[in-house]
Amino acid sequence: PSLPRPSTPPGLPPPHSHRPPSKLSYGVVCSSNINRSMEAHVVLGNAGLRVESYGTGTTVRLPGRSAMEPRVFKFGTPYEEMYASMSATPDDEAFFTRNGVLQLCRRGAAVKLAPQRWQDVPSPDVQNHDVVIAFEERIFDAVVDDLQTREPTEDFVPVHVVCLDTKDNPHEAKLQGRVCLDLCWLLEGATDLVEEMPEILEAFQEERMTHTPIKILYQLCYL
Q1: Residue predicted with more confidence, 177 or 6
Q2: Does residue 35 sit in helix, strand or coil?
Q3: What does the pLDDT average to over 26-35?
Q4: What is the pLDDT of residue 178?
Q5: HEC states along 102-153?
């Protein structure tokens, strides 16, 4: 991609983690694969974890000039094309710079070609992810529903689906990206996620509740 990759804090593993980075593979999912999941994609990727990002919506919907006029794109439309579309005139460029959407498109283009829709990803690619993290309850539900309706593969492997509920704005996404990374480092230290995941999530939620309310949902699926 022609746009430079944004930098984030490197997210070094904590001292008690003796494992090399990315024993696990992560999928991060929001609605349009441009704000919450892309923030997590950048943060986890820059920390050395294996990660891909997705959206579950029917289309990529971005804030427009009013709530009734979102800018809508098909999944698979390159981020650079979205950027060009929303900066076609000086007036558009000024407006979409002010509301932050052009920055989101720039970041997306720096990480990968285009938004990907979770439901369209082939099952062999989906089952490569050990952990899938959704950033809203309805998106968590959509991921679980999708996994449960897919034809089981021969391998029939566990896929751990977690929800870290996050408001859909850049500030909240940035905060939750760090929370997501902290959780992933804990998961990297597990020896058996099927056995240990509920306990890890419960302890993580309790610890986080002391300084910021966080609601975690969890579902173990097989594919």
Answers
A1: 177
A2: coil
A3: 97
A4: 92
A5: HHHHHHHHHHCCCCCEHHHCCHHHHCCCCEEEECCHHHHHHHHHHHHHCCCC
DSSP H or E stretch at residue 14:
none
Percentage of the chain lying above the pLDDT 90 cut: 77
Non-local (6+) Cβ contacts of 188 within 8 A are 13, 17, 19, 21, 22, 23, 24, 49
pLDDT, residue 19, reads 47
Question: Average of pLDDT values for 146-161?
Answer: 95
User: pTM for the full model?
Assistant: 0.90
Q: Which residue has the tokens 């968590």?
A: 140
Residue type, 94: A
Please say whether the beta carbons of 89 and 99 come within 8 A.
no
Helix axes 90-98, 101-111, angle to 10 degrees: 90
CB atoms within 10 A of CB 167: 12
Q: What is the 3-state secondary structure (H, E, C) of 64-77?
A: CCCCCCCEEECCCC
Task: Identify whether the C-beta of residue 28 lies closer than 8 Å to the C-beta of residue 191.
Answer: no
